[in-house]
Structures are given as structure tokens and as C-alpha cells.
Write the C-alpha cells for this entry.
Amino acid sequence: MPATPTLAPAPTLAPKLTIGPITLDVPVVLAPMAGITNTAYRRLCREYGAGLYVSEMITSRALVERTPESMRLIAHHPSETTRSIQLYGVDPKTMAEAVTMLVAEDRADHIDMNFGCPVPKVTRRGGGAALPWKSDLFRSIVEAAVTAAGDIPVTVKMRKGIDDNHLTYLEAARAAEGAGVASIALHARTAGDFYSGQADWSAITKLKETITSVPVLGNGDIWSADDALRMVDETGCDGVVVGRGCLGRPWLFGDLAAAFRHRAGEITDAEATAARAFPPLGQAAEALRRHAELLTEFYDGEERACRDIRKHVAWYFKGYPVGHEVRAALAMVTTLAEMDDLLATLDPTLPYPGIDAEGPRGRAGRPKRPALPDKWLDSRTLDTTGRAELAGAEVEHSGG
Ligand SMILES: Cc1cc2nc3c(=O)[nH]c(=O)nc-3n(C[C@H](O)[C@H](O)[C@H](O)COP(=O)(O)O)c2cc1C
């Protein structure tokens, strides 16, 4: 009797993303953004979508010193079921102490490490995106974190390198894979690119070809759900990390979830189309108001929340016909009641503006020659001068 052929399960195009013991329903990660991805904003994005929502970066030193600000930044709301914290550090011992503390005090379910900061103040001292150039130091920081974390997954996020002549990502990724990280994310720019031009997704393809035992996440210039699917198709990456594209558009996480679920055959064409967000002005204003309300909880007061929401106003209303006076007045409010009065003057039925509300937003700028410590590029190992510079590299700064 001929053997009955066994049917292989139908392949899904968008498998769930597994980061160590964490399984995400959709392969989407909110990029850590200093000054943005606090618990208020993470909660708001979660209300629209699915995925992993990473904290803004916290320095390992500040955490070990238990500075009040770092303790506040690592706190999660009970609704944040995967508590994800990003750390930045330049010293293996301090990194190990910080991770040990997070684990011992049960403060995190996932720890990401930032090796991508291009800010001159940081790279000038050998930190941020300059650090992986010192391959021994990079490896020992990652090993220290992974060892201290035990069962908690540790991931890394990096840039391509210092500049096009000093790429570090493939070697650093292999070292991180060897050290036991649970995934590797690449912002496909160098420090020298800063936020200019277009992210080089071909580097994500190369990374995916190089790293075979853990997921590779692609990052850079995803402005829509279509961009996210395109990145997966073009590079083969296992998931996407979305930063500036969701500024003032937390509903993008709904679009992303629908797009990936549709692709996996979990929802129909009609459901996917219905899930796509084309918010009229009233809904954009509601999201802004909700953001301010969540910030009020985070800061424990309306005044600081209103001050913080200012930078988001232009992003929420990008492309919408909201007059200069209202925008300027929103930047001056000190209470939620004042904000409500101003938002009440808008016509909530004005439709989604389409293309004008889409595309690039947030940081851009020109390429910059990376600032580095003297003779930093001469050797891939850390010498005494480099060590002295690094002592000042772990400063509070603006992220990645
Ligand atoms: C305001 C801002 C703050 C950022 N802060 C961090 C950070 O704390 N840690 C980090 O790894 N990257 C940080 N980044 C980089 C982003 O995580 C992301 O890699 C980058 O914006 C590229 O992705 P995008 O094109 O989707 O924005 C920051 C970016 C912005 C715009």
C-alpha cells in the first residue's frame, strides 16, 4: 500500500516573532526613543496594536546609582505585560550590576542594549555607535549582560558602524549571537549618516544572511504598514522596529498588526481593509488628548504632561488643516481643561488628509563626520587612552 503523503502545514508568511521565551503575535517592535517611549506613550501605542514596546534608553550607571529619574523611567504600568527596558552602558561590570538589579527585583521581562547612538557628545568619548569598533569591549558588555540576565532575554540594537569605511555590524552581530542574545536589531545607517538619506536595507539583508540562530529585526524608515511588509520581503528580516513613523500616529501599530495578520491569513481582506486607520481630525485630536492624559499619570501632574506633549502636537496634526493659532496655543496649555477647550474648536469631521499626513517625520538632518576619541580607529582593541575616554561616555543623552 502506498504511504499516505503527510500534508505539511501551510506556510505562513508572517510567523510570530519569538525573542527567547517571549512570543509576539505580530513581528513588530516599538523602537526605543529617548524622551518619547515612556510608559504613557507605550501604553497608547499598545491600545492600538500588538507587539513589543521598548522603554526609552536608561544608562546602566544611573540605574546602579538608583537615580530617581532612572527609577521612574524603568517603571511599567500593570497593563504592560512584557516589561521591556533598554539599557546603555560602556562598562561590562556596571552593565552586569544593572541587569542583576533588574532581574533580582523582577523589574523586566526583556532587556535591550543600545549600541547605536550617533550623538557626537557620546561617540566623541567612544560610546554609542563608536563602541562596537572595540570588539573586545563590545563582546564583554554583551556577555556580561546575558550572563547576569539568566532566563530574561537580552537583545542588541545597533547601527551599521561608524561610517562606510568602518562598518561593525556583521562582526558585532556574530559576537552578540555567540554571547547568547535573543535577537539583533539593525538601524541600517552608520553614525556618520546620522538620520540623513535613506536607510540602507541591503545591510539588513546581509545581516539576515549572516545571523542564522536568532531573529534579525530591521529598522529604519518604516513610515507605513506597507513599508514594513516591504522591508520583510526585501530583506528577509524576522521583524520590524518602528520609530519615527509612529510619532503622532500611535494608530500605526493597528495598521501594522492588521497588515501582518492579513499576510499570515489570520484575517480576511475585508477585515484588513477595515482595520486600516484613516483617522479624521476628531480621532487624531482624541489620540493627542489620550496621550496627554497618560502623560499626566506618568508625571503625576498636568503641567509637566502639558509641557511634554508640546513636541507631539505638530506630529499629531501633520497634514491636517489645523491653524497656526491653535497649534501655538496648544503649545502653551498648562492643564487638560485648557487643552479640551482648544481641541473643541476643531471640526472633528474633517477627513484624514491622506499623503500629507504620511511619510517622514521626526529627526532628519545631514550626514556628520563622526566625532571620535583621538586614535580610536587605529586599533580594534581598547587601550588605556580609550578606557579613560570611555569613563565619560555614559552620559545622559538623546538616544539613538
Ligand atoms: C527622538 C529619538 C530618540 C531616540 N532614542 C533612542 C534610544 O533611546 N535608544 C535607541 O536605541 N535608539 C533611539 N533612537 C533611534 C530609534 O530607535 C531608531 O533606531 C531610529 O529612529 C530609526 O528608526 P526609524 O526610521 O523607524 O525612526 C531614537 C530616535 C529618535 C528619533
In short: Residues 31-36, 56-57, 86, 114, 116, 157, 187, 219-222, 242-245, 362-363, 398-400 surround flavin mononucleotide (CB under 6 Å). Residues 281-351 form one domain. The two ends are 63 Å apart (CA to CA). Residues 196 and 366 are 5 Å apart (CA to CA).
